[in-house]
Amino acid sequence: MSKRNIVIEPDPILRKKSEPLEEVNNDLRKLMDEMLETMYEAPGIGLAAVQVGILKRLIVIDVSKDKEKKDPLFLINPEITFKSNKTSTYEEGCLSLPGHFAEVERPAECHLNFVDYNGNKKDIKANGLLATCIQHEIDHLDGILFIDHISKLKRDMIIKKLKKSKKELDKVIL
Ligand code: GNR
Ligand code: NI
């Protein structure tokens, strides 16, 4: 299986809206397997297709703590049908903003429907870290990053640092 490269901010693709998928076939399952491997390797607890450069409404998640017991979740065309008024705050990170973390407040519970790995329609209710992760990933499908939920001052500081590290990297590669 092959690992994919993760797109790092600032990159205009991360601001684009992803398109729904039409069907679940073996090519799509191969992509989902590769995304899962890329996420585990990173390591991360979630990954949206846009983060590997593909503008499709597709997400992989695994919030299980135990490294031995994997519990992957594949979400195709996910739609949130309910968000609680009660909120919770987590320190979020993003594989596309390496090394940067910030507290983000989001609805504590959400319900969603999606198509699974086998092409079946599913509904689930999520709370805790899973609910936060699902909302973080669905934001990616709409071109939204976790830094869009924090103050402009903090956001601009993080983007400035990421721009600087990209420049440094360009120097080394040249
Ligand atoms: O690995 C990740 N950790 C994380 C922690 C708190 C809230 C959201 C996340 S998702 C992130 C991986 C990622 O960038 N997914 O898009
Ligand atoms: Ni992310």
Name the descriptors:
binds ligand GNR, 7 strands, binds nickel (II) ion, alpha+beta, Peptide Deformylase, 30% helix, 174 residues
Task: Please outline what is shown here.
The protein is α+β, with helices and mostly antiparallel strands and 174 residues long. The protein has helices at residues 26-41, 128-141, 152-173, and strands at residues 46-48, 58-61, 73-83, 87-92, 102-107, 109-115, 121-127. The chain has 3 helices and 7 strands, in the order αβββββββαα.
- CATH class, named Alpha Beta
Q: Indicate how many domains the architecture comprises.
A: 1
Q: Main β-sheet, in a few words?
A: 5 strands, antiparallel
The residue fraction in helices comes out at 25-40%
Counting DSSP H or I runs of 4 or more residues, the number of helices is: 3
Run of helices and strands: HEEEEEEEHH
What integer value in Å does the Rg equal? 16 Å
Give the ligands present. ligand GNR, nickel (II) ion
Number of strands: 7
SS class: alpha+beta
Low-confidence sequence ranges: none
Explain this structure.
This protein is an alpha+beta fold. The protein has a single domain, classed as Alpha-Beta Complex (Peptide Deformylase), CATH 3.90.45.10. 30% of the residues lie in helices and 25% in strands. The chain is built from three helices and seven strands. The chain has a five-stranded antiparallel beta sheet with strand order 1-2-3-6-7. It has a two-stranded antiparallel ribbon with strand order 4-5. β6 (109-115) and β7 (121-127) form a beta hairpin. The chain is globular and about 45 Å long. The protein starts with 25 loop residues before the first helix and ends with a helix. The relative contact order is 0.17. The protein binds ligand GNR and nickel (II) ion. Ligand GNR binds next to β1, β4 and α2.
